[in-house]
Design goal:
The protein is α+β, with helices and mostly antiparallel strands. 26% of the residues lie in helices and 23% in strands. The termini are far apart.
């Protein structure tokens, strides 16, 4: 995988360590009648609710492949950040009322794509702040 995290560093999509953030969502044509949520969807979420940051990669195609293989886990959204001058694409999943609901969802995540302990539960307010 093309993880942007260096060994021993926190999750690659953290907003520390000099990462600059740019507003952006990668939009894809709807696979069916459902349309993938975009930046507006992220901004419209209750800032006190939770989402799961799945992974951050330099190749958005791998994120799209995961989304296509796991429609049962929708909704997903992808937003773009800049890390060390390069774009990275961050995949988030879900909209949960509290940490307990998000933790239950993490347990249901398929193994193989990302280690469960590397799935990051975040408040929407944190993600929304990265888009501004």
């Amino acid at each position: 995988e093309e993880s942007t995290a260096e060994p021993g560093e926190p999750n690659a999509a953290t907003d520390s360590a000099g990462a600059t953030h740019s507003s952006g969502i990668i939009s894809t044509p709807p696979a069916a009648e459902d349309k993938m949520p975009d930046e507006n969807w992220i901004q419209e979420r209750d800032p006190g609710r939770y989402t799961i940051q799945v992974i951050a990669l330099q190749n958005p195609d791998k994120l799209q492949m995961f989304i296509g293989q796991h429609p049962d886990l929708a909704p997903f959204a992808i937003y773009q950040q800049q890390l060390k001058g390069k774009p990275i694409y961050v995949l988030i999943q879900g909209d949960y009322a509290d940490v307990k609901q998000a933790q239950e969802a993490v347990r249901m995540f398929p193994s193989g794509f990302q280690k469960r302990e590397e799935l990051w539960i975040r408040r929407f307010i944190m993600v929304q702040g990265l888009l501004n």
